[in-house]
Write a structure and sequence with these properties.
Blueprint: E1 2-3, H1 12-17, H2 29-34, E2 49-50, H3 53-64, H4 81-99, H5 110-113, H6 120-138, H7 141-162, H8 165-168, H9 171-186, H10 195-212, H11 220-240, H12 247-255, H13 264-276, H14 280-285, H15 289-310, E3 316-320, E4 332-336, H16 339-362, H17 369-391, H18 394-397, H19 422-429, H20 432-440, H21 446-462, H22 466-480, H23 489-495
Antiparallel strand pairs: 1-2, 3-4
């Protein structure tokens, strides 16, 4: 066995073409300048060992004869280090975003990262979610296929653990279930056939919490898991139009003893709870459309109050523009202190837009002074909300100006193809749903919708976010054919991966 040395640190394309790779993460600039996808880097700690016995034996024969030896190799070489490299890349990317970034919403997984005694079903769950995220980020079929294999194995191992009541009560079982749900959301194709499996993980997680008991979720990690589950369940129910399970109210009451109940996010979630909880009972108890209109108006006012009282918790900095830019709609844009703050503001705005849409949809055909006032208030609110959503975009998309600080140190904003960090990629991804709802809304002006479509195309082309081009195409079709049926906002939300990328 001959030691062949450590593998090159260069990416696959640079190795094959013997190019000088700048080793920038997540993608090298050589690939970006060429306009091709960079598939990242190998694990340089692994060693390449190759069986050279036959080659060594044949060398003395070269001195005795004129014929060259033939070294036979198997037709199907099992390059075992390649899947390992893929998994290492995936895990590094997963840790960078979901545990170290992403408002640290998944940092309750930290204890598993440096442990040699990690439960098998959790390890497989992390592997599956990591590979799904890598596949989504670089459009890698290999990562997606390997992720599905890991997912199936994780599902089988988790089901085996659930057969034992004591093992099912372990916190690791809930962690594995949350990871399985995350995998489903990341690789979600938007098809209705997958909804059953996605709901199954949510319902399974709630059952595990009930089995374990809320009194066993009092430490920081336990509280974060419950809050993650609360958000996931609520969004699933809203997006599918189903009532929130009663268990969720008990969990929220439990969380109120360990969290800041004055936090804008916590308060917003509480208001959104009220938009979904009645379920079928709501339609039966509100035969008069005015009751529903007044209910929506009340919820909208509550969300507006939260937004007015949010600062400085959710910091927003207004920037006046003194130059012309295709990345800015009006003469200003907003700058937020983080991606999470941007996302929470836009989530609040989207919620208000949907409530205002429902108000206008519910207004009686016969106009009255009361209905005119309700329509005027809803329309005015929608106009302001759409402007605010559009103003949140340049800080993420304008690499030459507003978003220049987000570029890697060696990136040149003047060059069409320059590098972007994973964080910057996701900064743009979280804008997609808010931009769709703004462009979908009946309150969106023609020039605003045209600008929104243009920004979505830019995000798709410049940042290579394939879903942005998909959303842009949907809005373009709606614009061309006003009579066609518009996809529901929550259908687009599921298409974009639901809460898999939400802070």
């Amino acid at each position: 066995m001959v030691y062949r040395g450590k593998p090159s640190k260069a990416c696959q394309r640079c190795r094959e073409r013997k190019l000088r790779c700048d080793l920038q993460r997540p993608h090298c600039n050589s690939c970006l300048r060429a306009g091709v996808r960079c598939y990242g880097y190998r694990d340089t700690e692994s060693l390449r060992i190759e069986n050279e016995t036959q080659s060594v034996r044949s060398k003395p024969k070269l001195l005795k004869g004129n014929t060259y030896p033939t070294v036979t190799r198997p037709k199907n070489v099992n390059l075992s280090h390649l899947p390992l490299d893929l998994q290492v890349q995936a895990r590094e990317l997963f840790i960078e975003y979901y545990i170290q970034d992403f408002s640290r919403a998944w940092d309750f997984l930290n204890p598993y990262l440096n442990s040699n005694d990690i439960p098998e079903h959790v390890r497989l769950g992390i592997d599956a979610a990591s590979l799904a995220f890598l596949s989504h980020h670089v459009t890698s079929p290999s990562a997606a296929n390997l992720g599905r294999l890991k997912y199936v194995s994780a599902l089988q191992k988790t089901n085996a653990v659930l057969q034992c009541t004591n093992a099912a009560q372990e916190t690791s079982t809930l962690d594995a279930t949350l990871l399985l749900d995350l995998f489903e959301k990341i690789l979600n194709s938007g098809g209705a056939a997958r909804e059953k499996s996605q709901r199954a993980h949510i319902e399974g997680s709630l059952a595990l919490v009930k089995l374990r008991g809320l009194n066993n979720f009092t430490d920081e990690a336990g509280v974060k898991k419950l809050y993650r589950l609360t958000i996931n369940t609520m969004i699933s129910c809203v997006s599918l139009g189903s009532p929130v399970p009663s268990e969720l109210f008990k969990i929220r009451e439990h969380l109120s003893h360990f969290m800041n109940t004055k936090d804008p996010k916590f308060r917003s979630v509480g208001v959104i709870f009220n938009t979904t909880t009645p379920g079928e009972e709501l339609s039966q108890s509100l035969p008069d459309p005015w009751e529903n209109i007044e209910r929506c108006a009340s919820l909208d006012e509550q969300l507006e109050t939260i937004s007015l009282e949010a600062s400085p918790t959710w910091y927003v900095f207004w920037v006046d523009l003194h130059y012309s830019s295709e990345r800015v709609l009006d003469d200003f844009y907003d700058v937020y202190d983080s991606r999470m703050t941007t996302q929470m503001w836009n989530a609040l705005r989207v919620s208000r837009l949907l409530l205002c849409e429902e108000i206008l949809e519910s207004l009686p055909a016969c106009q009255s002074e009361k209905s005119v006032r309700a329509a005027q208030r809803a329309t005015a609110a929608m106009d302001e909300l759409i402007k605010e959503i559009c103003a949140s975009v340049p800080q993420m998309t304008d690499c030459k100006n507003a978003a220049k600080s987000k570029l890697p140190p060696n990136a040149d904003a003047c060059i069409s193809f320059h590098g972007h960090t994973v964080s910057h990629f996701l900064d743009n991804y979280i804008l997609l749903y808010a931009l769709y709802v703004a462009g979908w809304s009946r309150g969106c002006q023609t020039r605003q919708r045209a600008w929104i479509i243009k920004q979505l195309i830019h995000i798709g082309d410049h940042f290579r976010v394939k879903e942005a081009a998909l959303v842009a195409n949907i809005l373009q079709n709606q614009t061309k054919n006003a009579m066609s049926e518009k996809p529901r906002p929550w259908d687009i939300y599921r298409l974009l991966g639901s809460y898999a990328f939400a802070a």
